[in-house]
Design goal:
The protein is an alpha/beta fold and about 375 residues long. It contains eleven helices and twelve strands.
């Protein structure tokens, strides 16, 4: 796909699964490195997973991905139009944001250099709930200018807060006389939290948005047998102890039934997104990947839901899983297990993390105390 094809609706281009670049960051991985990124990317591309979502905030993800994408092992086999790159602007660090027009433009140009590409398929404004909406609107205007200049193909926003995403989407449609192309929301189309489907999708569609990325299907590693991931920056996970406790109880139950909590949660998230997608409204799942083993496990799990062949480009095809019934036996078992998990979660089902918390001042884009605010969207 070339930059000249940007008039094609994004819903017709974005595949059902995307590789999350946060797995190459200090937040969720100890010592992210070039060798890790290259090996994961080579295997992902071989298996057909060629859409990547990252951010300047996921340091050093952009740098490592760019080194991998420019490596002869990749360039000798894949041209730029055979993979899809999404990144973000605005969030710099856990407590640092810059949505100024000059920085947004500088950040995009830096991402182009880091990723060794002449254009970016999608650029999101990152974690928009942490800054004043007027600054977000200004940043979107800059990104739309950069679409016209040929640096970007599609523009979106990302946030945990569904209400803020919907409000900004409506404002964009009104102020810029065109809709946002895409919205990204994290950890709210999961086995634990279904608020994206319940509260977000209808509002996004009404605002003209054609694509929604549901990221963190495991809620940043919460929905698995092991504890939450701890990278070089320590335990950043926003889940309170009560939620962690019931998730562990649910994971133990699922394991006792001979199933993996992580696999069940991933199947549930993908199946949910595909069931709500249409040819003109795509819901895609972003999977955090840190290793070849994790990549292969996740794709094997995804195949159980998408019911696609082993052809090398199956994930790149936007038709994968849209019109094919899932395996009924697997779906029946999963339905029973998911129901049991929901019973165990009890009042924690559909619990949402505060974002931002009471310790964050949106107007000043600063913490209001010495306590560090929760880090979001990985």
């Amino acid at each position: 796909m070339s930059i000249s094809q940007a008039s094609i609706p994004l819903s017709h281009l974005l595949p059902p699964l995307v590789l999350g670049g946060a797995g190459f960051s200090h937040q969720v991985y100890r010592n992210p490195n070039s060798a890790q990124a290259l090996e994961v990317l080579k295997r992902a591309f071989q298996l057909g997973l060629r859409a990547i979502d990252t951010s300047a905030y996921y340091h050093p993800s952009e740098i490592l991905l760019g080194e991998a994408l420019s490596h002869p092992d990749i360039t000798s086999q894949y041209s730029r139009d055979q993979y899809f790159l999404m990144t973000k602007v605005g969030r710099i660090a856990a407590t640092k944001f810059d949505y100024s027009p000059s920085w947004v433009r500088q950040s995009v140009m830096r991402s182009l250099q880091r990723l060794h590409t002449r254009y970016l398929d999608v650029v999101f404004c990152h974690d928009v709930e942490f800054v004043p909406e007027e600054e977000v609107m200004g940043a979107i205007g800059v990104l739309l200018d950069m679409v016209r200049e040929g640096h970007i193909r599609y523009v979106g926003i990302s946030s945990y807060r569904i209400d803020i995403l919907a409000r900004i989407a409506r404002r964009v449609q009104s102020q810029y006389s065109r809709p946002l192309d895409i919205i990204q929301n994290w950890a709210q189309m999961t086995l634990q939290n279904d608020r994206l489907a319940q509260e977000g999708l209808k509002a996004f569609r009404e605002a003209g948005v054609s694509c929604v990325c549901s990221s963190s299907p495991l809620a940043i590693g919460l929905l698995r047998a092991n504890s939450v991931p701890v990278g070089d920056l320590g335990d950043f996970h926003p889940a309170p102890s009560g939620l962690r406790s019931v998730v562990k109880e649910a994971a133990d139950y699922v394991a006792g039934q001979g199933e993996s909590m992580a696999a069940l949660a991933l199947r549930h998230s993908i199946r949910r997104g595909q069931s709500l997608s249409t040819p003109d409204f795509r819901i895609t799942t972003i999977m955090g990947i840190t290793s070849i083993a994790e990549l292969e496990d996740n794709l094997a799990t995804a195949r159980q839901v998408l019911q696609v062949s082993n052809e090398p480009h199956w994930l790149w095809s936007t038709d994968a899983g849209q019109s094919v019934e899932g395996n009924m036996a697997r779906a029946t078992v999963d339905e029973r297990l998911c129901s049991a998990v929901h019973n165990i979660l009890g009042p924690w089902r559909d619990y949402s993390f505060p974002s931002p918390g009471d310790d964050w001042d949106v107007a000043t884009k600063q913490p209001v105390s010495t306590k560090q605010p929760v880090s979001t969207k990985l």
